[in-house]
Amino acid sequence: MSGFVFNEKPIQIERGEGAYLYDDSGNEYLDMGASYACVPLGHNHPAVDTAVREQFDDLTYVQASYPVQSRTDLYELLAETAPEGIDKVWLCNSGTEANEAALKFARSATESSKIVATMQGFHGRTMGSLATTWKNKYKKPYEPLIGDVEFVPYNDDDALAEAVDDETAAVIVEPIQGEGGINPAETSFLETAREATTKSDAALIFDEVQTGMGRTGSLWAADDSGVVPDMITSAKGLGNGLPIGATLCRDWIAENYGSHASTFSGGPVISAAAEATVSTIVDEGVPAHADEIGGDLREEIEAELGDTVRDVRGEGLMIGIEVKRGSNRLLKQLALNHGILALPAGRSVLRLLPPLTIEREHVDEVVDALVDILGEDG
Ligand SMILES: *Cc1c(COP(=O)(O)O)cnc(C)c1O
């Protein structure tokens, strides 16, 4: 083997369908991580598969400067479904690129440079996005990164208000921190971010790479917060497993974005995948389903495991369970003894980001498995 970056897991996945993955020995796994929220509609959803195949038959790729129907449709759909006032769309290939673009657009449109970000935040791994990511382990080997980034404690309204000044180009924040441990923002924190950025003519960026696409119980977490930012970044679930990112912005940003481009921006096939994903999520009421089933899952985990875990938090189907003894052993036991794949968020949090289409029976399966494992540990 010559790949060197990933520590590969000892299970070779060969096939997926809905909430399930199958390995090369035919074992079935309930996918409670959706490979980091990347398949909100479940694996190999027929609407997305069909859209991709049809587009692929007609045209795989043409340079982005020619209009293509699938991309135009996606632009319109994203503009229509984004919060009021956000209707310009830039497409790219990943979450970090979506944030990279947002940071560049903010610097250009405001003619300022300082970026305010949050402790424990995660925004990606290219030089700009990485500079706004909190964890030193990800940054140290690559320094110097872009300068002029100030970090404030998440949910500290006063620190945030104080950090934003006339030199500030943007505040970038996840409405619920994912990688940082499933930490939901208080509404007042997002409101403070809105007020402070408006007062200083800075841009407010919601990084919805993980929270978007219905995961938190509404299409965008912004919809729930009542706070409308100037930009929303998306990726992960946007193409239901195919690589696409988006930076959605208000007019005042789009009018002065500077000069930015990417060869593969919104290619025909990937745009067809994302259009099918978003329209299915919206038409089938997937966010409301995620809200309901996620509420059930959180309630039952709390009821059955309240004493054996430290905390259960999140919104919709973005759930973190803070455990007492570290999440690694629990993840291994879930996979090997119960056929359930989940994710960590740091050392002590078990992260659940399942397909948003999971049903009651899947909730029961997960709760039973957790009770079985954690009940024993006492
Ligand atoms: C995963 C993630 C990113 C980075 O996305 P990539 O596609 O891996 O570059 C950025 N922000 C948040 C909140 C994420 O969860």
Automatic annotation (TrEMBL):
Q: Which cofactor does it need?
A: pyridoxal 5'-phosphate
- PROSITE patterns associated with the record: AA_TRANSFER_CLASS_3 (PS00600)
Name the source organism.
Natranaeroarchaeum sulfidigenes
What NCBIfam families would the database entry show? argD
Annotated substrate binding sites? 125, 262
User: What keywords does the record list, in alphabetical order?
Assistant: Amino-acid biosynthesis, Aminotransferase, Arginine biosynthesis, Cytoplasm, Lysine biosynthesis, Pyridoxal phosphate, Transferase
PANTHER family in the record, alphabetically?
ACETYLORNITHINE AMINOTRANSFERASE, MITOCHONDRIAL, AMINOTRANSFERASE CLASS III
Per the UniProt entry, the Enzyme Commission number(s) are 2.6.1.118, 2.6.1.124
Recite the UniProt cofactor note for this protein. Answer: Binds 1 pyridoxal phosphate per subunit.
GO CC terms for this protein?
A: cytoplasm
Would I find Ubl conjugation among this entry's keywords? Answer: no
Name by which UniProt lists this protein: Putative [LysW]-aminoadipate semialdehyde/glutamate semialdehyde transaminase
Any one Gene Ontology MF annotation carried by this entry is: pyridoxal phosphate binding
Q: InterPro entries under this entry?
A: AcOrn/SuccOrn_fam, Aminotrans_3, Aminotrans_3_PPA_site, Class-III_PLP-dep_AT, LysJ, PyrdxlP-dep_Trfase, PyrdxlP-dep_Trfase_major, PyrdxlP-dep_Trfase_small
Assembly and partners? Homodimer.
Extract the HAMAP family matched here. LysJ_aminotrans_3
PTM sites of type N6-(pyridoxal phosphate)lysine? 236
Which reactions does this protein catalyse? [amino-group carrier protein]-C-terminal-gamma-(L-ornithyl)-L-glutamate + 2-oxoglutarate = [amino-group carrier protein]-C-terminal-gamma-(L-glutamyl-5-semialdehyde)-L-glutamate + L-glutamate; [amino-group carrier protein]-C-terminal-gamma-(L-lysyl)-L-glutamate + 2-oxoglutarate = [amino-group carrier protein]-C-terminal-N-(1-carboxy-5-oxopentan-1-yl)-L-glutamine + L-glutamate
Gene Ontology process terms (BP): L-arginine biosynthetic process via ornithine; lysine biosynthetic process via aminoadipic acid
Localization (cell): Cytoplasm
Function, as annotated: Involved in both the arginine and lysine biosynthetic pathways.
